[in-house]
Amino acid sequence: MRDLSRLIRPKSIAVVGGGAWCTEVIRQTERMGFDGPIWPVHPRAVNVAGHGAFPGVGDLPSSPDAVFVGVNRHATVDVVGQLAAIGAGGAVCFASGFSEAVAEDASGADLQAQLVAAAGDMPILGPNCYGFINALDGALLWPDQHGCQPVQRGVAILTQSSNIAINLTMQKRGLPIAYTVTCGNMAQTSQAEIASALIDDPRVTAVGLHIEGFGDIRVWEALAHKAHAKGVPLVALKVGASDQAQSATISHTASLAGSDAGAQALLDRLRIARVAGLPDLLETLKLLHCQGPLRGANIASISCSGGEASLIADMAEGSDLRFPPLTGPQKSTLRAALGPMVALSNPLDYHTYIWRDADRMAHAWSGMTGPDIDMTFSIVDYPTTDPTDWACATEAALKVRAETGAPFAVVASLPELMPEEIAHRLMQGGVVPFNGLREALAAVSAAGQVGAPSPLPVYLPGTASATVTLTEAEAKTALAAHGIVVAGHRTATRDTIVAVASGLCPPFAVKGLGLAHKSEHGAVRLSVRTEDLARVAADIGTENLLVEEMVSDAVAELLVGVTRDPAHGFVLTLGAGGVLTELLRDTTSLLLPVTRNDVEAALSRLACAPLLCGYRGKPPAHAPGIIDAVLALQSYVLAHADSVSEVEINPLMCTPDRAVAVDALIRKA
Description:
Largest sheet: 7 strands, mixed
């Protein structure tokens, strides 16, 4: 990786160009209190924004650490080459019209390639980006307004979108932002490389990533391992769709996996928390800055309103968050603080008997913490008329945190009812000040996702186009060679089906071969008796048929499939199987390779998991056989990684003593 330390933590700055953007860079740098030299470069101006200008890059007094290149795109290539030649620390390339503009100008991609070649080993941000703000050292190359203030420590935010970066810096939620970096086109230096450089700064407490695409998976894996080793949690807002080549997919798996399943599986594998929106990103970063990752998803809530207690309980419904019942010690503490008139529960409405008595409030609030509680919420909406009138709540929260050391948060149910000055004070005492109840729950859920990334690197697929679809019989033979159990079957024609089936045990399933979705063409018949074979074969209408033994003792049907995702690897999808697979959409996805433990955990997350465990008196499915089938399918995929595009078993019939593939599909080069 390139060394970005001089670029993002510069001692000297140069600004090439003379327009309003370049002038603003100098002004913003001065406003942040940068105390190093600032060198404008302009071929004609004597002075730019109060600083003496140099006619060219070669005239600078020494090699600058960080340079804002604010000239047109063609001149940018030349300037970057000159900077690399004099050993500059790095450059921000502001100009647009490179690869992002290929649809309008085909020369953009070539120009971007020239830019990368000109930079050589010198790191560049962009092109088509605003640059960076280093609020720790007061150093920035930024051509517009921003809301960052000097901080001693804080979070870093990286995004490809300069406009989103500006908006995030304007937050009024008390979040200390140490770095804001825009990545632009990432022509040379990727988002993961930038993040890796940022976490080398011990003052960075967490990193927020607005991700449009991953690029080199190996660099992201290295980042995840490095961040975990350094104790710096990562949280991502992943948007957009991957560049999956699924226009010709014919399996249920590909339809269900979609473009986002691979991205989610990669983030899960790297243990990078994922959030759904910008407010969630900010609140999760706030939690991670104050508290770090959470051990689990057990929460407690205390408020002086039954309405708020009901609200948080309802809002957490359907998430992974849980409200454990109160323990004996918790009840004892609460009863001593609240007296006999309050019904004790989690969430708790503690009424207003002790309001304005900060010590008694702290005593009660402490009772909602405990070794099995990963985060305790106290719901407090500060009045806009006079927020200081509720100083008792602030004092009580700080006292709980100081005395118990437990993870503790004050959450305003409405985001605007957490004043920024109070948020700052709470954070100084280690209390998380949440703006918004929904956002708080999302943040706690996300903070529980952070952990050690998988030690196994993602298996990267080949790129050959899939042009061959095996018949069901061919697919079953190929998978059986890797350990998949398949039902007894034979291929036949309409004229030979009776003779061929004589070696199998009825009843039969009869299927027409050569069709992608056989059930949609009426080409699947089940529970066929021997005497009906000829008639059924004629009804199906295809010349070539598959006749196989029925599996009649299944307690559940599963889908097990793998699709090749060029952006993320091989995506393994597990889910409820059968003809209603796409309607049920009960699936979970992982990236290959997987272990037995991975598969077991994934199966437990399915809504149909109770069927596998034995439901309403039915016997459980043979779990080892199911896991063996998944690993056998993986074995086939990895053995043919250069050529395979899709593999699917649907359904995998799960019986009390085995797991049997009764339909299979393979597409490959």
